[in-house]
Amino acid sequence: MKKLVAGIDIGGTNTVFALVDEVGSIHGSGTFPTDLHKDFDDYIVALRDGIQEVSSKLDYPHKIMGIGIGAPNGNYYTGCIDSAANLRWKGNLPLAEKLKVLFGGIPVVLTNDANAASIGEMIYGGAKGMKNFVVITLGTGLGSGFVVNGEVMYGHDGFAGEFGHIAYLRGGRQCGCGRKGCLETYVSAPGLKRNAFELLSRENHPSVLRDIPFSQLTSKDVAIAAADGDKIANMALEMTGKILGESLADLVAITVPEAIFLFGGVAKAGSLIMEPTKKSFEENLLSLWKGKVKLVFSSLDENDAAILGSSALAWKELNR
Amino acid sequence: MKKLVAGIDIGGTNTVFALVDEVGSIHGSGTFPTDLHKDFDDYIVALRDGIQEVSSKLDYPHKIMGIGIGAPNGNYYTGCIDSAANLRWKGNLPLAEKLKVLFGGIPVVLTNDANAASIGEMIYGGAKGMKNFVVITLGTGLGSGFVVNGEVMYGHDGFAGEFGHIAYLRGGRQCGCGRKGCLETYVSAPGLKRNAFELLSRENHPSVLRDIPFSQLTSKDVAIAAADGDKIANMALEMTGKILGESLADLVAITVPEAIFLFGGVAKAGSLIMEPTKKSFEENLLSLWKGKVKLVFSSLDENDAAILGSSALAWKELNR
Questions:
Q1: 0.90 exceeded by the pTM?
Q2: How far is CA B187 from CA B117, B194, B241, B247, B270, in A?
Q3: Measured between beta carbons, which residues in chain A are less than 8 angstroms from residue B131?
Q4: Domain A130-297 belongs to what topology?
């Protein structure tokens, strides 16, 4: 009897789920638009049906031992999704409890995307055997998942690890959270774009980015232009890396991770983002830690990482 | 047979030790100047002799179960004091191991002052029953001890919790660590003094602080002047509180403690430092946490706190 868990990644656009074994092999998966169902209970039933359909297609004996879920604002302690801005259902959604009922009482655990990514890194990725590390996700925002003494740091309320909302520049750029100067307004996919636009306004170098409106420019455009030698695009990546490196040096002074893993859209720029980040990181570290903290890309495949993270969450819970 | 532990606090000036029971009652104590012995081995023997003398004066049956030590740059993992700037012995000092031999193999554990303070708060103070909290010590520097998931966060190398060395203002004031703009150059006893001098240079208000040279001004002078209504002194405490509140709001976004405990010389200014700190803290928190994280003074007596912290470290180790 093959033991499997269901890993579920709930995104603003799509919900993806898969059956995964303990070494991280995916035994079938499915997906549907997250906003297909107006009613949250209908959504959960669709999720159950989707997982059961994948399970029914496997032609060998297997058992679903537990379920792990990564979702925006997912709270490990309560099992609820708490007022997620980019989901259609409002309020406090008791996702873990409801799904547990539909699956006959097997363990169902929930956390946010960045924490799931950190557990994925710990179980299947580059953080195997590490007790203290951090995963930084550079996407629509800057997410962070901290592992301390071998356990995910959930904090008092389950929402620890909002490193994107420390102040990089007090009174600086307007952040979606209502405050100004948060790190993620400088370091994230939109942060990279804002850096490019700040540089377009400040410098006179010709740039292909001058022909793209703000609303259409993506972080990928910036990375492609930089790889083509565009000066402004390169400066934007350098600026992003400089700020990220400074901030990660502060992070080291607090939690002292063995390694920091970078993940997400901006990380796809490869050495164009890693080199300035490393340079600034090392320059800003307290001398005690210079050259001692690994700063690397996540070793998980971008396409499977969310699912692997969620399933790793389930395996970690089952093996407690 | 009364079970006791020896708590030792090694300061730059004095070494203090005491025998403490599990509820935090002190059963005798002693002290001697830390720099009395040129040779580190002689120092350790003096420490052993001092503890045994205190023990020999107790007229009831008792047993020393273990030893806990708080020391600058004390490393929990290695049991060594690692290049402490204000101790006369240089290099890596294997304190725990050597003391263990002198005491017949009982458990000897070592950590730094701020971590010891956090364990003292957890075992004997206001953090009883809390799983996630932080102790901030505002003395010669800004120290921090983090408890995460019920355990002290030592980080990968044993030196986690250097919150005083995150950047408050990059390129700002010269810090003793060789970098510029570290938080402790703005928030600590010397930081408060530097804030007062910055204000003396910037403002024209009359102030008793104008008659005291930099080399002689203490944070206590500033607090006394502020209590007497001195405008500059009050502004200095407000400035210190504003910066501390901003920084603690960032800290919450990372670890989400249930409570933050303030301790040390600057905390003695009472409401003069707490009020501006709380105001700034609440203003700068992400809305999710406004009004939800306790910001309070340590409930441990300043005179006993270091000893209680060290002895609590020993009790925690014995009860693992």
A1: yes
A2: 18, 9, 8, 10, 15
A3: 156
A4: Nucleotidyltransferase; domain 5 (3.30.420)
